[in-house]
Amino acid sequence: MNSHKNAIVYRLERPEMGEVEAVMLEDDVVVFVVSGSMNILYNGVKTAIPQQNILLLNKGLHQVEFCDCSAVVFRLPISDIEQIVCYLSTNYNVSLISEHSCESCRFRNFFSASSTAVLAEFFSSVNRLLSIPDFGEQAQKLKLVELIYLILSGSNECLKSRLIRVIASHNNCFTQTIYNNIFKATQTAEMAQRCNLSVTNFRRKFSSQFNTSPCKWNISQRLERAQAL
User: Fold this and answer.
1) N or C: lower Cβ tally within 10 Å for the chain?
2) What is the CB-side half-sphere exposure of residue 74 using CA atoms within 13 A?
3) CA angle 215-217-220, nearest 5°?
4) How far apart are CA 150 and CA 144, in angstroms?
5) Which residues contact 100 (CB under 8 A, 6 or more apart)?
6) Residue 207 contacts by C-beta under 8 Å, 6 or more apart in sequence?
7) What count of other Cβ atoms lies within 10 Å of the Cβ of residue 123?
8) Neighbouring-strand partners of residue 209
9) What distance in Å separates the CA atoms of residue 170 and residue 100, rounded to the nearest whole number?
10) In the Cβ-directed half-sphere of 63, how many Cα atoms lie within 13 Å?
11) Can you spell out the DSSP letters for 81-95?
């Protein structure tokens, strides 16, 4: 599932009844099973993901068995997710707060649920668009915005809380990277690279997180360290 690193959304076709294989994901992904099925193995337990189900896989290593499977896969890149969440919360009052917690959506590195009629229709339309050559990067990003909106504004609290958890982990990762490299990276471009962001996206996210520019913050932190020493 990681063979389309540069695509936001792509179609996965596995017509064979394959053996269990290790799949390494560099980003979190949302998968919609169009036909066939797949099995996820976790702690020795096999979970079937049938047709018309949605699957959220956290980045990392997964044990997957494909069974004559066709699926639509959305990557959730950190930089794109941050921009989308900011846009949705500002313009559509989408909440990023969820107090939901249950046994079916905790502890595992994946979550699966039956699709609602709205999400099923959304993925069906995306599946058709993937057959059109003009369905390029910008159009794919717009569909990613739509997908995140549908999940965060939908009725499936488990799916919503899992996505919010993914977004929160991205924020924590960003902050942790900043503090881990505060005295290692001296240039904004270098710090942006360490956070896997463009310089523009890095500055925007940094300003939102720390309420100042990277340069001013870095100087103030170095002065505070000098005082402490």
Assistant:
1) C
2) 25
3) 110
4) 10
5) 157, 158, 160, 161
6) 213
7) 25
8) none
9) 19
10) 10
11) HHHHHHHHHHHS---
Judge if pTM exceeds 0.90: no
pLDDT digits (tens, 9 = 90+) for 59-103: 889 999 999 999 999 999 877 887 788 788 778 888 777 778 777
Residue tagged 């904004």 (tokens): 188
Which residues, 6 or more positions from 119, have their beta carbon under 8 angstroms from its beta carbon? 32, 54, 150, 151, 154
First to last CA, the chain: 49
Distance CA 160, CA 135 (A): 27
Under a CB-based contact definition with an 8 Å cutoff, are residues 67 and 13 in contact? no
CA 193 – CA 200 distance, rounded (Å): 11
Specify whether the backbone of 176 is left (phi greater than 0), alpha (psi in -120 to 50) or beta.
alpha
